[in-house]
Structure formats: structure tokens, C-alpha cells
Amino acid sequence: MSQQNPKILILPGDGIGPEITKEAEKVLQALRARHGFAATWTHGLIGGAAYDDCGEPLPAATLEAARDADAVLMAAVGGPKYDLAPRELRPERGLLAIRAGLGLYANLRPALLFPQLAAASSLKAELVADLDLLIVRELTGGIYFGKRESVVEADYQVGEITLPSARVSRDTEAYSDFEIARIAKSGFEAARLRNKRLCSVDKANVLESSQLWREVVIEVAKEYPDVELSHLYVDNAAMQLVRAPKQFDVIVTSNLFGDILSDIAAQLTGSIGMLPSASLNERGQGLYEPIHGSAPDIAGQQLANPLAMILSLAMLLRYSLKRADLADKVAAAVRAVLADGLRTADIARAGEARVSTSAMGDAVVTALNSN
Ligand code: NAD
């Protein structure tokens, strides 16, 4: 990887993807023109756009370009148009395949509440004001990658009960001690850089895989005596997130539980359109994407909030390109436009003026160039 002239692969994907990508590229162009940033970038196909063009959601050329890049900036994939496509060729399979292909096992999802948006949260402002938590989600294992099957069974057994002939589908939640230790370390390392508190979330009272999860996390904790470790069952964790979210610093959890808990954490911040994420591999190479999907309901209407995409670019600058200086500038520009009262529809309160996707991007560039 070359940090002097870094290479970025941009994957606009589907739905609102191309619209929000355009705004992130305006920021990249501003960084290159005015802030001494010597990156180059190219574009690739993923998801439905790739399926339409090449008949598969992750063409080999895209994976090759991703492996060759220092970092990948992706918008989102999917849409109702592809609901009837064969399961293996659906857009979301492209996403799972690029995560697996790059070995991106650690997904970092911050939930940070910008003070100007405290009123947008569905919780009382005092419960969420200054919220700053990080969910570290395991991304390449568990039920999304486990063995799956659909069969017909003559005698279908549920606990002690035998049911008559039935169509049965199974998905398997499987974790090895290696996978658990690796993501636990990511959680402890992240906690070390923050407030040194790590909460491991599992379902160890029921699931075999969660019992191993808990055992291994406790073992790894011995290497991090400076980090306070706690454990919660996932149902309690979901409840605590909406009851008293500020109790958390870093949460580490499995792929499935992390998927659900990070959407709850996102809602605490008021808008899914504000939250970036980073997925990293052992080389520090990363895929950066908003946590939201392709929002087909508002695609092509200039209604999408591009800030999660722009903040994903800020994470890319910080984690993969080691340009904390530029990441701070982008984050400061986002804060400045919010302080100036700019709101896309998703973060506007009743009666507040709303700006378009491109007007929000332009405002971030103006703020960036004026500091
Ligand atoms: P979604 O995140 O796309 O949308 C949920 C709601 O949030 C919608 O009302 C949408 O309009 C709104 N929203 C999302 N992003 C927004 C933004 N930037 N600005 C303003 N409003 C925004 O989730 P969904 O509706 O469940 O899924 C739609 C499609 O996206 C599906 O095909 C799904 O599989 C896919 N998806 C992709 C990813 C990904 O690419 N990482 C993640 C989740 C869902």
C-alpha cells in the first residue's frame, strides 16, 4: 500500500448510492485541490448495478481492483428490482462476497450524536446528549456465512415434540475460537483507545456458539488488564441500548447480533443517514460505507442525506490512509454545516427548511474550504 499516492476504489452501488457518492467525490476533489491530498480514485461495479451489467453482484474485476486499492469507499446495494433474482446473484451477496474476499472481519460502527441533532433522537435528549459508543461487529463469520439448507423431513423434531412431514430450512451459527479471539482483540484495542470499557454481547444462556464466545473473550481479556470487561445477553443489551445507552463505551459482538444492535444504536442518533462504518482486515485495508441501505423509496429524488457517506470518507482517511488531519477537517466541516442549520429531510424537524442531497454536499465543501 502506498500512503503517498493512495488509491481509492469507489463503488456507488444501487438506489441512492450514486447520488451520495457524487457528494463524497466533491469532498475528495476539494481535498485534492485545496488540501494537498494526492489520492487517485477509480470506480467499480457492485450489487444490482453489477448484476445488470455483468450478471453477477461482485465481478472478479471489482474484487481485484478492491484488493489493489488502499481503501474502498462504497455506498449501498440492493433494491426491489432484484427481489426475484436467484438468491446467489442478489445484490447483497456482492456485499458479503467483497467482505469475505478482502478478509474484512472487524466492522466498526460508531454511534455518535451530534449535539445539534439531539432532538432528532426518538429518546429523550438527556438520555442521548453526547452519546458516543462504538459497536465492533464480527463480519465474516456466524450465521450469515454458516451452512444453510432447505429440506423435507418426514419427522421433524422440535425439542421433545415430533411434528409431521415438513419443509425445513436451517441456517447455522458457527464460530471458531480463532475468529472469536480475533474480533475480541479488535474490541479490546478499540476500548483501549477510548474509555477502556468493553461489553461483550452473546446469548450464552442458550447457544453453544455463544458459550464458546464468552469463554474465549474472558481468555483474551487477560491480555488487556487495563480494560474493564462486562457481558450482556443480547436481549438485555437491546433493552439497555434504549434504556440507558450512555452506559456503553465499546460493544463487541457477533455478526447477527451486531447487525441488529447497530441499527438500534443508529436510531438513537436520530438518523440512519448520519452514520458511517469501517470494515478492516489484518493489513489495515478497509471498506468504508454508510450503515444505511440503498433506500430505494427515495432514490433519484435528491432527498438522501449524504453525510453518512461523507463521514465514511472521513473514517477512510483516518483508519486506512492514516490522514487524521484530513479526517478531522472533514468531520469539522460536517459539524459546521449542521451548526449552520442545514438539514436534509431525514434530520429536519417539522417546519425546518430542508436542503437537497447536492446542496448538503456543496455546503460541506464550502465549509471545508473555509477552514
Ligand atoms: P435502508 O437503510 O435502505 O432504508 C431504511 C429507511 O431509511 C428508508 O425509509 C430510507 O429512505 C431511509 N434512509 C436510508 N438511508 C438514508 C439516507 N442516506 N438519507 C435519508 N434517508 C435514508 O434499509 P431497507 O429499506 O431495509 O433496505 C433497502 C435496500 O437496501 C434493500 O435491498 C436492502 O437489502 C439493502 N441494504 C443494503 C445495505 C448495504 O448495502 N450495506 C444495508 C442495508 C440494506
What topology does this entry show?
Layout (H helix, E strand, L loop, with lengths): L6 E7 L3 H18 L5 E4 L4 H7 L5 H9 L2 E6 L14 H11 L4 E7 L12 H4 L3 E7 L9 E6 L2 E3 L2 E3 L2 E6 L5 H16 L4 E6 L5 H14 L6 E6 H10 L6 E4 L1 H14 L7 E5 L5 E5 L16 H13 L4 H16 L17 H13 L2
Parallel strand pairs: 1-2, 1-3, 3-14, 5-12, 10-11, 10-12
Antiparallel strand pairs: 4-5, 4-13, 6-9, 7-8, 13-14
Distance between the termini: 30 Å
- Cα gyration radius (Å): 21 Å
Reading the helices and strands in chain order gives: EHEHHEHEHEEEEEHEHEHEHEEHHH
> Class by helix and strand content?
alpha/beta
Low-confidence blocks of residues: none
What is the fourth-level CATH superfamily of the domain at 1-112 and 272-371? Isopropylmalate Dehydrogenase
Shape: globular
- CATH C-level of the domain at 1-112 and 272-371: Alpha Beta
Number of helices: 12
Portion of residues in helices? 25-40%
How many β-strands, per DSSP? 14
Strand line-up across the major sheet:
2-1-3-14-13-4-5-12-10-11
- Share of β-strand residues: 15-25%
Summarize the main sheet: 10 strands, mixed
Mean pLDDT: 94
Q: Quote the CATH topology of the domain at 1-112 and 272-371.
A: Isopropylmalate Dehydrogenase
Reported CATH architecture of the domain at 1-112 and 272-371: 3-Layer(aba) Sandwich
